[in-house]
Specification:
Chain lengths: ~300, ~250
């Protein structure tokens, strides 16, 4: 089975290319991440993949079916967590799952036998009759994940599954997603959280302005795209110091507000230099995915 | 058109919500038309000797059934469908499943027509209990109001598909629904209108619903049955196709 294959996909709105020719493919059983700043085109890409908007050009295969031609057949075997919750507020938790299962043509008895285990999976055991209106944000997100599993899909498409959640809720979702991957599901996920992508994704792509900038395993991207060590320098004098002296120690140094981020292969000389300047606070750490992301997409705000 | 049996799952979703509030909903829908029927029927009817060869309240009965069917279908296809489309994003949620937008619109159409039929049927029952019907032929009004419900639901869904907010629906009611109620033979026979307006009234769907319902309730043989049904059917099909293409433009761009 080909979970998803996207080739030279383009989509523009009002003359503005939102997706500007991207290609990627998911392997069976992997978790693949799509990262990118606001407006990078992640949600638009997912909508094209689901057949919910027609691409200008390019080809898409979703669970072996050509999209948009046979999008409806493809969606039979896909589960979706949309970026914004759209649970049915008129219903209880169990009714949400029941009604959603019917959209897949499932028989009521088949759905009802799945409901307890789906709620259990979502950490909502015993909440069958609880109204959606009184659920917390984390509970809603978990129920949306359970809803996406009602048809036992082969592929899950998750658009920012943990945005807006507290750390506890986020960890629970991560744990559940890992369980799904262990069970052999394939996952395509978008996120703004680099630690989430590092933890969950076997491979990921960083998008900006509708293009894929890089693709690969998180560890490899950190190794190949950026210097291994980062020294952050804080304080009122940091920008001035960076301007005057950082160049002698760091290959690259970026200033953001009152912090200078120095990217180095060997931190020792820089740390020695800074030890003599107590007015500057320092933090030495290994480079991470966020550094790669910021290097590729820049530090400017998008909207 | 990309239609499938899944449209019925959308119908069932709405039915499940309605079932929770069924009784108040039916009673609420009954209050308004009953006030018209009794208020005008007895109040105004007392001043009138005969209208169209019968008592005024018997004349008004058919118009009330049709007008309230129209109102029920319009409210459901406008306000309720809009809250599912725009406020709750229920349509988008459904479309992530193997249900097409065309199915969703069809499900909404059938649902609004069903609810309108129930509304019309409840009034029909009251009218029958008051002895204002003539024999079993009144039952033919049931398929007629279902068709009437379909026509107005389809028209309403066109408006919903382009509406930016709830306020927009006021225009539809004040510019279309209310004038139509006055010009379709609900309250007085069409031949009271100036000739030009009589011709214009033939373009209004409600005219054709009333044109069939009135003889059916008064125990007469309706005339031009095929013509009335054809107009309502054509409006349903054309408006549904329009609603689908407007909804696609809104949601699938
Ligand atoms: N239906 C639409 N009509 C017009 N413009 C659109 C439409 N959908 C998206 N856009 C524009 O396309 C761009 C990409 O949007 P998209 O939602 O795909 O980004 P994203 O990567 O998901 O961003 P975010 O991280 O904020 O969710 C944005 O500039 C957005 O305004
Ligand atoms: Mg998005």
């Amino acid at each position: 089975m080909v979970p998803l294959k996207v080739d030279a996909l383009r989509k523009s709105y009002g003359g503005h290319q939102v997706v500007a020719g991207i290609s990627f493919a998911l392997q069976r059983g992997e978790c693949y991440g799509l990262l990118g700043p606001n407006g990078a085109g992640k949600t638009t890409t997912l909508r094209c993949c689901l057949g919910l908007t027609a691409p200008d050009s390019g080809s898409i295969t979703l669970v072996d079916e050509p999209v948009p031609a046979r999008a409806r057949e493809a969606r039979m075997r896909v589960g979706v967590v949309p970026q914004f919750d759209n649970l049915d507020p008129d219903f209880s938790c169990a009714e949400n799952l029941l009604v959603y299962g019917r959209y897949f043509g499932m028989a009521d008895t088949a759905i009802r036998t799945r409901i307890p285990q789906l709620l259990e999976f979502a950490g909502l055991a015993g909440k069958e009759d609880t109204s959606i209106r009184i659920l917390s944000g984390g509970m809603k997100r978990r129920l949306t994940l359970a809803r996406a599993l009602v048809n036992d899909p082969d592929l899950l498409i998750l658009d920012e599954p943990t945005t807006g959640l507290d750390p506890q809720a986020r960890h629970l979702i991560w744990e559940r997603l890992k369980r799904l991957i262990a069970d052999g599901k394939t996952i395509l996920l978008t996120t703004h959280f680099m630690d989430e992508a590092e933890r969950l994704c076997g491979r990921l792509a960083i998008m900006d302005a509708g293009r894929i900038m890089v693709e690969g395993a998180p560890r490899e991207l950190i190794k190949s795209q950026i210097e291994p060590q980062v020294v952050e320098v804080y304080g009122e004098d940091a920008p001035g110091w960076a301007q005057a002296e950082a160049g002698a120690f760091a290959r690259r140094c970026e200033v953001s507000g009152e912090t200078a981020f120095c990217y180095v292969d060997d931190a020792a000389p820089l740390l020695d230099h800074l030890a003599a300047r107590p007015q500057l606070a320092t933090l030495h750490r290994p480079a991470n995915l966020e550094d790669v992301f910021l290097k590729l997409t820049g530090r400017d705000l998008r909207d | 058109m990309d239609l499938s049996i899944r449209a019925l799952a959308v119908w069932r979703r709405n039915f499940l919500v309605w079932r929770k509030l069924a009784l108040p909903s039916i009673l609420g829908n009954l209050a308004d038309p009953m006030i018209y029927l009794f208020g005008l029927g007895y109040g105004l009817g007392g001043l009138l000797p005969q209208v169209g060869g019968t008592s005024y309240i018997a004349f008004l009965a058919a118009g009330t059934v049709c007008a309230s069917t129209m109102n029920a279908a319009s409210f459901e296809a406008l306000y309720s469908a809009f809250s599912r489309l725009h406020v709750q994003k229920t349509w988008e949620a459904i479309m992530n499943a193997p249900v097409s937008l065309d199915d969703v619109v069809a499900g909404e159409l059938l649902w609004a027509a069903s609810k309108a039929t129930l509304s019309g049927a409840a009034i029909l029952l009251v009218i029958a209990l008051l002895g204002l019907t003539h024999g079993m032929q009144a039952l033919w009004v049931l398929p007629l109001i279902f068709l009437t419900g379909l026509a107005f639901a389809a028209l309403g869904l066109c408006v919903t598909a382009v509406a930016p907010s709830y306020d927009f629906f006021m225009y539809y009611f004040t510019l279309f629904v209310t004038p139509m109620t006055l010009l379709s033979g609900v309250f007085f026979p069409l031949d009271q209108l100036p000739a030009a307006m009589q011709v214009a009234a033939q373009a209004l769907p409600l005219t054709h619903a009333v044109g069939l319902a009135r003889p059916l309730l008064l125990g007469q043989v309706p005339t031009d049955v095929f013509g009335h049904i054809a107009v309502l059917t054509i409006i349903t099909v054309a408006a549904f196709a329009t609603a689908v293409s407007l909804a696609r433009r809104r949601l699938l761009k």
